[in-house]
Write a structure and sequence with these properties.
By secondary structure, this protein is an alpha/beta fold. It has one domain: Glycerol-3-phosphate (1)-acyltransferase (3-Layer(aba) Sandwich). The protein contains six helices and seven strands, in the order αββαβαβαβαββα. The chain has a seven-stranded mixed sheet, sandwiched between helices. α3 links the parallel β3 and β4. α5 crosses α6.
Length: 214
């Protein structure tokens, strides 16, 4: 197990703040809901490839994201490792990635996860069991995060990015625990926890949309 650099993640956060606030106009709501200390998991919807950097630049604490291994190529791979991000093979049970992610939580850090596993509609309709496993295994609370507006298509100057200087809302929800108190990590416990997580994430997304009007 290799625990990623907390200092590197802090550097990544400072870079994210500069980039995000230069290129767009983020409106951050509820950041105070992220616990000031101790392990926590940020569960983020994923509709655009800037959602990760957007969260890194708006979270009140440095974040270690699980990122697909395809991104860790050449200079970009070295950069991502340098700012404390975690490589994961999405096609298999990546034991190294699991160990590294648990290491972040065991050391009281913040783990960022896209529960849907890949970019899509960003509506939390398909949640993988990995999030439940990390929460049950570590005991860390989950904070749901809705990134809204990043997938806006009109007005783009650069096809791969949201319109420059456009408004993007980042809404943090209330932290919640996943376990039922039994401490079990059986398949049935994971399945039940995944259902509870999806209900909470979906409710947060609906509330965030009402709150922001998106």
């Amino acid at each position: 197990m290799t625990v990623p650099s907390e200092r590197g993640a802090a550097v990544g956060r400072r870079m994210g703040i500069g980039i995000v606030h230069t290129l767009w106009k983020p409106r951050v709501l509820g950041a105070w809901r992220v616990p000031a200390g101790g392990p926590v998991i940020l569960a983020v919807n994923h509709a655009h490839n800037v959602d990760g950097p957007m969260l890194m630049g708006t979270s009140p604490r440095p974040v270690h994201f699980l990122i697909k291994q395809e991104a860790f190529v050449g200079p970009l791979g070295s950069f991502l490792r340098g700012i404390g991000q975690l490589k994961v093979d999405r096609t298999s049970a990546d034991r190294a990635a699991v160990g590294n992610a648990l290491g972040v939580l065991d050391h009281g850090g913040v783990l960022g996860i896209f529960p849907e596993g890949t970019r899509g509609e960003g509506d939390f309709t398909s949640i993988r069991a990995g999030l439940a496993y990390f929460a049950l295994r570590s005991g860390a609370p989950i904070v749901p995060v809705a990134v809204l507006g990043s997938s806006e298509r009109s007005g783009r100057l650069i096809r791969a990015l949201p319109p420059l200087r456009s408004h993007v809302d980042v809404v943090f929800g209330d932290a919640f625990a996943v376990g039922d108190g039994s401490g079990r990590r059986t398949r049935s416990a994971l399945d039940a926890a995944t259902v509870r997580i999806q209900e909470r994430l979906t409710a947060h997304l609906e509330n965030a949309r009402r709150l922001t009007g998106r």
